[in-house]
TrEMBL record:
Record domain HTH tetR-type: where: 5-65
Assigned keywords, A-Z: DNA-binding, Transcription, Transcription regulation
Protein name: TetR/AcrR family transcriptional regulator
Gene3D superfamilies for the chain: Tetracycline Repressor, domain 2
Organism lineage: Bacteria, Pseudomonadati, Bacteroidota, Chitinophagia, Chitinophagales
């Protein structure tokens, strides 16, 4: 890794939590310079503008979430067990090194839906990628005889995602973690009901 690549990575790592907590509009250049201890010129010497830093920060935060889920899935042997990883990792959110500020998809999609097309597209691409990963798991489970053959994989994927993202939003808004646990039990039951 070159010095400039290391510097870019440093900037991304130091600012990812800020963007994920304060959002694009709420993150100032002072936030970036304070977090990195670099000058504005140093930051813009490595990134074209604040938007480019924000996009890289989103990618970093989303990769962090994906890496946690993939790491936990690698410990499982069946497709059903791997599907249930979504319950155990998201319910155990606080024991994993999830990004500061919570779910980057929810945060970014909520902020950028009408104001920032490039960030909205990043969040949408992440959602489609996540949906496709669940669809592949369900389809493999059907092929392996673990999951009922009549299961609509895309419908199941979207339902799981909507329940997880919805309860994150509800819990953040209300501060009531009991809602989190109740909905995650529903996600777990939804997955268990797929079994043959």
């Amino acid at each position: 890794m070159s010095k400039s690549e290391r510097t870019r990575e440093f900037i991304i790592e130091r600012t990812a939590g800020i963007f994920n907590t304060k959002g694009y509009a709420g993150t100032s250049m002072a936030d970036l310079t304070n977090a990195t201890k670099l000058t504005k010129g140093s930051i813009y010497g490595n990134f074209e503008n604040k938007e480019e830093v924000a996009l890289a920060a989103f990618d970093h935060n989303w990769k962090t979430v994906q890496d946690i889920v993939k790491s936990e899935m690698a410990k499982k042997t069946t497709n059903m067990e791997q599907l249930l990883v979504y319950v155990s990792t998201y319910e155990g959110f606080f024991k994993y090194p999830f990004p500061v500020g919570g779910c980057p998809i929810l945060n970014t999609a909520t902020e950028s839906d009408d104001t920032h097309p490039a960030l909205r597209k990043r969040a949408a691409d992440a959602l489609i990628s996540w949906k496709n990963a669940i669809v592949r798991l369900v389809d493999r489970g059907i092929s392996a005889g673990e999951i009922k053959p009549e299961t609509d994989a895309e419908q199941m994927a979207l339902t799981i995602m909507a329940m997880i993202e919805g309860v994150i939003m509800i819990t953040k808004a209300t501060g009531n973690t009991n809602y989190w646990h109740k909905v995650m039990r529903s996600v777990e039951q939804l997955i268990l009901d797929l079994a043959v």
